[in-house]
Design brief:
By secondary structure, the chain is of the alpha+beta class. The protein contains eight helices and eight strands, in the order αββαααββααβαβαββ. It has one domain: Gcn5-related N-acetyltransferase (GNAT) (Aminopeptidase, 3-Layer(aba) Sandwich). The longest helix is centred in the middle third of the chain and has 17 residues. It comes from Orchesella cincta (Springtail).
Length: 224
C-alpha cells in the first residue's frame, strides 16, 4: 500500500471539492458512480450501448483494483456527493483482468487491449511495469470544473512520491488527449474506431454512419 506521506500529494481541498483515497467503505458508492456516470456517458461506452450487465462487468474490473490503494475520489464538500473518481492500477507482467460475461464489456476491454498492443511499450521501450490511469469519471452535476485535470496533476505528484517511473493512459477524445499532452504524455498508438474489429478480426464493431473523426483511442505514455 502507498505511504501516508505519498497520499499527502493528492489528498486535500480544492475549490468546492475534497480529494481523498478510496477506502473499503467507499467501494459500493464508487462502483455506483462508475456505472451511472462513466459507463453511461464515456464516448466508447455510449457507442457500445449501456446496459446494467455492461456496467456490472466493467465494475468487476474496477473492484479488482480498488484494494491497491491507488484510486481516488473527489467529494463535493457542500453535499458530500462523489463528484469524480480516478481509477488507477499498477500494471505488471502478472496483471490479469477478471473474467467477463457481457459482450459489450468484452468489446470495451478488447478495444483497450488492441490499442495497447499497437503501442507495444514493453518491446518498444522496455517497459513492463507501469501505472495505468484506467478511467476518470465525473458526475454530470460537476463536469466542466477542471476535476479531471486536477486528478492528473495530483496523481502524477503522488506516483512520483511512490517511486513509479512510467504512467500510461488510453484516451478516447480530443479533450483528454489535450489534457495528457499538456502534462507531458506522448502518443504511442492510435486506433480509429472504423478500424476496430469484432472478435472474428474482420467485422467492424461500429457502423461508419455512427462515427465521427473524433472517435478514436490513443495510448499516451509519460515518464514520471
Amino acid at each position: 500500500m502507498p505511504s501516508e506521506e505519498s497520499y499527502k500529494q493528492i489528498e486535500g481541498e480544492w475549490k468546492d471539492f475534497r480529494f481523498r483515497r478510496v477506502l473499503p467503505a467507499d467501494y459500493e458508492a464508487v462502483l455506483d458512480h462508475i456505472a451511472q456516470n462513466y459507463v453511461r456517458d464515456e464516448l466508447t461506452c455510449k457507442l457500445l450501448g449501456w446496459t446494467e450487465e455492461f456496467a456490472a462487468d466493467v465494475n468487476k474490473v474496477v473492484a479488482q483494483f480498488l484494494p491497491e490503494g491507488l484510486s481516488f475520489i473527489a467529494e463535493h464538500i457542500p453535499t458530500g456527493k462523489i463528484a469524480g473518481a480516478r481509477i488507477t492500477l499498477h500494471h505488471t507482467p502478472e496483471t490479469k483482468f477478471v473474467s467477463l460475461t457481457n459482450r459489450n464489456a468484452k468489446l470495451f476491454f478488447k478495444l483497450v487491449n488492441d490499442v495497447e498492443e499497437l503501442a507495444d511499450v514493453t518491446n518498444k521501450h522496455g517497459i513492463d511495469n507501469y501505472i495505468e490511469f484506467f478511467m476518470a469519471s465525473t458526475s454530470r452535476d460537476f463536469r466542466g470544473q477542471g476535476l479531471v485535470g486536477e486528478f492528473y496533476n495530483r496523481s502524477i505528484n503522488f506516483l512520483k512520491a511512490e517511486g513509479f517511473k512510467h504512467a500510461l493512459v488510453v484516451v478516447t477524445s480530443p479533450h483528454t488527449k489535450a489534457a495528457t499532452l499538456k502534462r507531458g504524455f506522448e502518443q504511442q498508438s492510435r486506433l480509429d474506431y472504423d478500424k476496430f474489429m469484432d472478435f472474428d478480426g474482420k467485422t467492424p464493431v461500429f457502423k461508419k454512419e455512427d462515427l465521427t473523426p473524433e472517435d478514436f483511442a490513443l495510448v499516451m505514455l509519460k515518464t514520471l
